[in-house]
Amino acid sequence: MLEKLKLRGQSIKAFRTAEIYRVVKRGDRTSYLFPKIHQIDHHHIYTRYTFSLLNRINPELLTKKRWALRQVLGSNIEINGSLKALVLLFITKSYLRSSIISMKLFILI
After folding, report:
1. Are 11 and 51 in contact (CB under 8 A)?
2. For the chain, what is the mean pLDDT?
3. Tens-place pLDDT, residues 54-93
4. Number of domain units in the chain
5. How far is residue 47's CA from residue 17's CA, in Å, rounded to a whole number?
6. For residue 15, how far is the Cα from the chain centroid?
7. How many CB atoms are located within 10 Å of the residue 6 CB?
8. Which range of residues forms the domain containing residue 77?
């Protein structure tokens, strides 16, 4: 449970860094509304964030600000989905290293 809360905080940090949010002003107070995170699947090979964008957030922002997401979450990310429902997949580096080594061994054999 604590691991999922940590991952949720990390995803919100990534959205904040990439400026993927909607600003709402109530009087003299400013609030930031981030994309709705529906599910976080955490495995030793990958972490998958399922989320949806709020209305009035341009989905093209994800492709434009991909570099900011990579800085926070890591360089091995994939973004799949439609206009609202999206999946962000982060593959761990240790798994990539082991799969690359096994691919090299397969090529050598």
Report:
1. yes
2. 83
3. 988 888 888 899 999 999 988 888 888 887 788 888 887 6
4. 1
5. 19
6. 8
7. 12
8. 2-108
Burial of 71-107, coded b for 16+ CB within 10 Å and e otherwise, reads ebbeeebeeeeeeeebebebbeeeeeeeeeeeeeeee
Tokens 């994309």 sit at which residue? 35
- Yes or no: say if 13 and 72 are a contact pair by the CB < 8 Å rule: yes
Chain centroid to CA 83: 16
Q: Specify whether the CB–CB gap between 42 and 3 falls below 8 A.
A: yes
Contacts of 65 (CB under 8 A, 6+ apart): 18, 19, 20
Tokens of 107: 């090529």
| Cα gap 43→91, rounded to integer Å | 9
CB-CB contact of 35 with 15 (8 Å): yes
